[in-house]
Each structure stands twice: as structure tokens, then as C-alpha cells.
Amino acid sequence: MSAGIWGKIGGAGLGGLVGGPIGALIGGVAGHFLVDREGAPFGPTPRDVVFTTGLVALAAKMAKSDGVVAESEVQAFGRVVQVEPEARAGVERLFDLAKATTDGFEAYARQLATTFGDEPALLEDVLDGLFHIATADGAIHEAEERYLQAVATIFGLDAAAFRRIAARHLHLADDPYLVLGLDAGADGATLKAQYRRLVAETHPDRALARGLPPEAVAIATRRLAAINAAWDQVAAERGLR
Fold this sequence. Notes:
Blueprint: H1 3-10, H2 20-30, H3 47-65, H4 71-80, H5 88-100, H6 105-115, H7 120-134, H8 142-154, H9 159-167, H10 175-180, H11 188-202, H12 204-209, H13 214-238
């Protein structure tokens, strides 16, 4: 979480009121009582704050799902949620509050799904970040997989989308094709077109242009690297260069 976002959450200059469970969570950390944003006089809800806080909340709930938080997962969380030293204590408090809150993960996932319903790629980014944390210890546990599948369902992502995201983090059969969202029988022209579309949709510059936080940019960067690696493998095997 960048210092800029933490300033929005913890300071008086919050650009908008954030409602729902994410707003309540921010309020518990920042000392503000945040209410539903309908009719709020402070402008639109800051999407970067919702993205990052929602990601932290879902990561915390996932850590609770299997009852064990491995050191590798803590380190992976640090790579996904970029924290300046001065903000670390606040982020840890946010994480701990999210674990302890009576709100289930479904409430946080639904608010993210509502906020970013017009940009489903961002919802994939959230799930991508959660996969990165879950697989940091070299495996994904049954409770974590159930959790990730439930989040994907709330986000409106179908089974094919879930497998495509999973393939970027797990070794699945024909995983390069799964990463590209196609089957191994696709012809060369279809593969090239799909690869170009994914690169255009995923490029980190798009996240920067939309004013999204470093967390979204970092996830998009890793996602693009996985897409490029999958394409390189497929192109080499099929002679598509």
C-alpha cells in the first residue's frame, strides 16, 4: 500500500466516503466513521483506496481460512501490497482488523464486485494477487482453493476464467494455453490475436493511466510476465515467431 493511499485512508483529506464493510474497516483504522457514499459531498469514492483495502481484507480472510499463516505467505503479501516503512504499522492493523471482523469475506468480495463491475480485469487482478499469496509456500491448500473459488464466483468469474488465473500460479496440464485462455487446438492466427488482446488489456500502463495504486500495477506486471512466458512457450512449440 503506497504512502499516498495510506494518507487518504488515515488523513483528513480522504477524497470520498467509502461505504459498506470496506468503509467500516477503514474507519476502524483511521478513526473516521465512514458512511455510504450516496449523496456524499466529498466527491466520488476513491477507487484506489477501495481496491487496496479490499485486497488486504480478502488476503486477511484467506489467511484465516486455513488457520496457518506461513512466513512465505507473509513475504508474498509484502510483494503484493507495497508498504512504505511509515505505513507498515497501519497496514498490519488493517490486516488484523479484517481477520477479526465479524463480516465474512463475502461482504468484502461483493463490495469489490460492485465497485469494479465495469472493469472485470481489475477483479481478476485481485484474484491474481490472492493466488500469488496462497501459492507462496509452493502449494495451494484445500481451504484456500475453496476460498478462491468462492471469491471468483462472487466476482462473476466462470470456471474457465478461474482456471486461466490458476494456470499463472500452478502447473496445470497445457498451462500455457490456459494462461492465454485458449485450448491447445487453437490455430496460429487465433493464438496471435488472443495474445495481442491480452497484452493490450493487461499492460501496467493502463493501471497507471486509470490512477490505480501500486498494488494494481504490480499485479498487472506479474500477470503480463506470465502471459508473455506462456506465449513464448507456445510460439516456440508452434513456430509462430
